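Researcher: Re-running this chain for the archive, since the previous output was lost when a drive failed. Same request as before.
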Amino acid sequence: MWQNYLWDFDGTLYDSYPMMTEVAFATAQEFGLTLTPEELYYWMKKESLRYIAQEFAQERSAEFLARFHQLEAPRLAEPRPFPEVPAVLQALTNKGARHFIVTHRDHSAFDMLERDGLAKLITDGTTADDHFPAKPDPASLRYLVEKYQLVPEQTVMVGDRLLDVLAGKRAGLATCLYEKDDFLGAIPADRIVEDLRQLL
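Model: Regenerated structure tokens:
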């Protein structure tokens, strides 16, 4: 159905939330915040880490974010792809699809794809190093659409959060929510899958 897949990285292709939740919990404890790991995971998925910082650390939000990234840095390469990801990317590629990454992570995302043998399946992507506004701003998606002359009707943004879906819609693309949890509520994605193999 779709020929071009724009993939979110953390939480969609890579199982990053266990590490991120542990780091967020350690940061919250340092700041005296009484948030459980489950609550931190909920807010990271439903909103964002920036939301947690602004809502709970308030006037110390910038300091909270800086400390989170400081604690996260030595663990950035820990996450691995979800088990089904290599086969899904390969199967879609075999059908003629092209894959792109749209992530808030820095270029370490491509280092990890290379390490895990997936870089050969990825045409291109954007990272934090490209200095686009963060999703749900559609600028990074529009850049890839224009650079590769992607047909919007044949292009889908796949992600695990509302901000991924909103970015896709604002870029005029189809959207697919990868929903492994039941708490995100009504999200206006064109398609919702619980397993990426449902895209085959």
